[in-house]
From TrEMBL:
NCBIfam families: GGDEF. It holds the Pfam family GGDEF. It comes from the Bacteria. This is diguanylate cyclase. Residues 36-70 form a coiled coil. Keywords: Coiled coil, Nucleotidyltransferase, Transferase. Residues 94-226 form the GGDEF domain.
């Protein structure tokens, strides 16, 4: 039986509606994909911005924790690393050494050769300490001609050996300033830290030991200085 015009028109209308629905769904899916792509791009952009911000924060933290002259940690940075080491010692039972070093005769170098030479001596000594300590030790300039080293994971039995190695390295590598070798000498004091240690007490005890070594060295005759504990 042939379809009437009305039936044909109704079929055409139904086909049109179906095709329109398909097109609408396709359009909606395209819009959803575009929206999802936009969200992904926004998320990536936000992550990049966060990464850049975190990098800037790390750079600022590094700046405020770094001694400008020597490139070592300053007191602030050293104290933070020491707190972290003590917290780690509480978890692992690790022990180590707090070392304080002070240059001998630094004022005379400044007086005789000028402050530029004094700055060069500080940089040279700081680099020497960094070169002759391990990568997991923390080296800092506290200010003036005073330096600090946190020797992580060092046993008390190895303490004097490591201190002597630093003294010998300091004596072996003088600074050549305008063609003149400037002998660099330093006094070292230390104490052992563990999980129960207090930062202020560690610094006080190591500092006291360092000044004891310095005074002992000054009080000995010139010929006997080479065998003393203070450099």
């Amino acid at each position: 039986m042939e379809k009437t015009q009305i039936e044909l028109l109704m079929e055409l209308a139904a086909d049109f509606q179906q095709q329109t629905a398909i097109n609408n769904r396709a359009s909606e899916q395209t819009e959803q994909r575009n929206a999802l792509s936009t969200l992904v791009d926004l998320a990536r952009d936000m992550q990049n911005r966060l990464d850049q911000q975190q990098n800037r924060i790390r750079q600022l933290e590094l700046m405020v924790e770094t001694d400008e002259l020597t490139g070592l940690y300053n007191r602030r940075g050293f104290m933070r690393r020491t707190r972290e080491a003590l917290a780690r010692a509480g978890r692992t039972g690790e022990r180590g050494l707090m070392v304080i070093a002070d240059l001998d005769g630094f004022k005379e170098i400044n007086d005789q050769h000028g402050h530029a030479a004094g700055d060069a001596v500080l940089r040279h000594f700081g680099q020497n300490l960094r070169t002759h300590t391990r990568s997991d030790d923390y080296v800092a300039r506290f200010g003036g001609d005073e330096f600090a080293i946190l020797m992580t994971g060092s046993s008390p039995d190895a303490a004097q050996k490591r201190i002597n190695q630093l003294k010998q390295a300091t004596a072996r590598f003088p600074l050549i300033w305008q063609g003149t070798p400037l002998a660099i000498r330093a006094s070292f004091g230390y104490t052992v830290y563990d999980a129960k240690s207090d930062i202020s007490d560690l610094i006080r005890v190591a500092d006291h030991d360092m000044y004891g070594q310095k005074h002992a060295s000054r009080s000995k005759p010139e010929a006997g200085e080479e065998g003393s504990d203070a450099a």
